[in-house]
Amino acid sequence: MNLSNAKNPPLCRLPEVVIQGSGIYLPSKVLTNHDLEKMVNTTDEWITERTGIKERRIAGEKETPSEMGAMAAMMALQNAGLTAEDLDMIIVATTTPDTIFPSTACYIQHKIGARTIPSFDIQAACSGFIYGFILASHFIACRSARHILLIGAEKLSAIVDWEDRSTCVLFGDGAGAFIISLGENSPDQLSFDIGADGSQWQILYIPAGGSKLPLTAQNINHKLHFLHMVGKKVFRLAIDSMEQSLTRCIEKAGISAEHIACIIPHQANLRIIEALSERLGIPGEKFFVNVEKYGNTSSACIPIAFHEAVASQRIKEGDIVLFVSFGAGITWGSVLFRYKAKA
Ligand code: UT7
């Protein structure tokens, strides 16, 4: 399917934006495939072969997205050499907010002791962090903010049906945070591409719990408050949308794929990442993968993977890095930048 999002795409370049620090939080409780064998009719072999996932983290009662997000934020601030008082804005990407309102960002502002700065959530499902990255970069590029805290925080264990083997094995909980800052004449963000195709909303959604179908005992009995997914269709569109978005992003930057040192794809399924690598003719070693440890943590996948890639020296100063994601909506996005440790 052709998923082009603009007839004449604008030159998408935000040159003075840097990731000043990153942080992550992962719940300590590990749920392995063998644990799942005792819960639903599945096997470690099936999950490993069909998804690449071996285990995932499950949040405890007090580990809400705001709590996990605040922990990741504190680590990111420390790594950036900043305090919460230095922040000018908080943006949280989440599909599993603590409450419908107020926003998870407002809870986090209070928890980390930030000033009364603008704080809000955005919703683009698994592409949320990339949408947030691009949004934050625009505020920075317009000089409307100097330091923005961007968080992807998810508690997917709260919205999956633990009796449905086709979905419950795929997801996990966690949070990742970036401090996005104004750099100095640094050509760091090379290009980006985002888009959505709302005609595909029905392949991945939660029917009840919003104002269209409020939570009632009957809706809960029918399991309408859980995530519903047409797995095979999502699988195909995931590959199509990421392939096309990544290609557009590279074209806009005027570089070739060989210049990219590391690609951080959405961590939903190893087979999706392998198919993407094959279709694009980009060697598998260029893709950073940690899906075996955490499963799909939706908007938290990219910041968690980036943080681990930097910590393990898989990404080094000066490397060209590409983020690419897709999610419910459907949505997609990619961003290409040169990694620089500090502004
Ligand atoms: O962020 C976006 C979130 N979602 C995704 O990225 C999901 C994208 N889709 C996928 O990753 C894959 O479609 C799945 C992993 C969900 C499923 O893999 P598949 O290769 O598409 O399997 P399938 O749905 O065609 O199912 C094949 C068989 C079925 O049995 P029958 O009908 O052939 O007898 C399923 O009932 O596998 C069965 N099955 C399982 N068996 C053991 C489905 N889930 C399981 C399971 N354990 N957990």
UniProtKB/TrEMBL annotation:
Keyword Nucleus: no
Catalytic activity: malonyl-[ACP] + acetyl-CoA + H(+) = 3-oxobutanoyl-[ACP] + CO2 + CoA
Region (ACP-binding): 267-271
Alphabetized InterPro entries for the sequence: ACP_syn_III_C, ACP_syn_III_N, FabH, Thiolase-like
Residue ranges of domain Beta-ketoacyl-[acyl-carrier-protein] synthase III C-terminal in the record: 250-339
EC number of the protein: 2.3.1.180
Pathway: Lipid metabolism; fatty acid biosynthesis
Quaternary structure note: Homodimer.
Entry text on domains: The last Arg residue of the ACP-binding site is essential for the weak association between ACP/AcpP and FabH.
Protein's UniProt name: Beta-ketoacyl-[acyl-carrier-protein] synthase III
Gene name linked to the record: fabH
